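Sequence design from tokenized structure. All designs in this work follow the same two-part layout: the structure record, then the generated sequence. An example of the structure record is given first.
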């Protein structure tokens, strides 16, 4: 795994993590693993565990890390033979998650933090919910406020822990403008990786 980049994608609910990841996948062909999507797949299976996860997610709280890390670990193991790099979207969401990932899987090469105003994040989620054919169970005003609070309570500790490999990007801008900064950061990591393996 040390020859391919591992990039953590952080930011509050609705800041545009998934949107930027889709553009990164298009340009670099990386494997995109969203912790939220992996959890929603589990919920869709309608198992007892899925129902428990749904209740936590609808409250806006964090799912226990053993569930999230186990889903991520399984997906990484399945993809790693052919992957060009991993985008770990929405993880870590608290300091302990980052430590567990690096101990059990591999160190992250880069942390991209999309910093965005709360009102903007809220508006983006509500606009997404209005436009969706099937609305996410957590895309309602009350859960959005709870998700924002969970994010605020946990994020500074993560940023302090990974200050040396974190790039904070202003996400209050148009998608393509944000992406220019993303590309610069990823190109830099790819160059470093190439140098290290030469
Ligand atoms: P998750 O699914 O990760 O949701 P989230 O973090 O709240 O983020 P979203 O998916 O809502 O938004 P996004 O940042 O990807 O924005 P998007 O690109 O879609 O997590 C859901 C829940 O799962 C959590 O609350 C928790 O319970 C649980 N969970 C997940 N990970 C966990 C973990 N690690 N540990 C424990 N529990 C975990 O954009 C939003 C909208 O804005 C879109 O319509 C988009 O088109 C638009 N948009 C994007 N960028 C821009 C822009 N620059 N300008 C204008 N519009 C934009």
């Amino acid at each position: 795994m040390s020859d391919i980049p591992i990039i953590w994608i952080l930011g509050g609910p609705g800041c545009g993590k998934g949107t930027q990841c889709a553009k990164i996948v298009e340009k670099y062909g990386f494997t995109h693993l969203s912790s939220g999507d992996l959890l929603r797949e589990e919920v869709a299976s309608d198992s007892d565990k899925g129902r428990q996860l749904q209740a936590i997610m609808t409250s806006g709280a964090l799912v226990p890390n053993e569930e999230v890390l186990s889903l991520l670990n399984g997906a990484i193991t399945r993809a790693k033979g052919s992957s060009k790099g991993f985008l770990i979207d929405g993880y870590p969401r608290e300091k302990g998650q980052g430590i567990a990932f690096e101990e059990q899987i591999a160190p992250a090469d880069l942390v991209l933090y999309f910093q965005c105003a709360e009102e903007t994040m809220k508006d983006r989620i509500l606009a997404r919910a209005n436009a969706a054919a099937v609305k996410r169970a957590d895309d309602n005003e009350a859960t959005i406020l709870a998700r924002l609070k969970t994010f605020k309570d946990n994020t500074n500790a993560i940023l302090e822990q990974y200050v040396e490999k974190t790039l904070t990007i202003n996400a209050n801008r148009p998608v393509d403008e944000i992406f220019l900064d993303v590309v610069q950061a990823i190109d830099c990591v790819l160059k470093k990786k190439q140098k290290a393996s030469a």
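The chain has a mean pLDDT of 96. We note this feature because it recurs in several other targets discussed in the main text.
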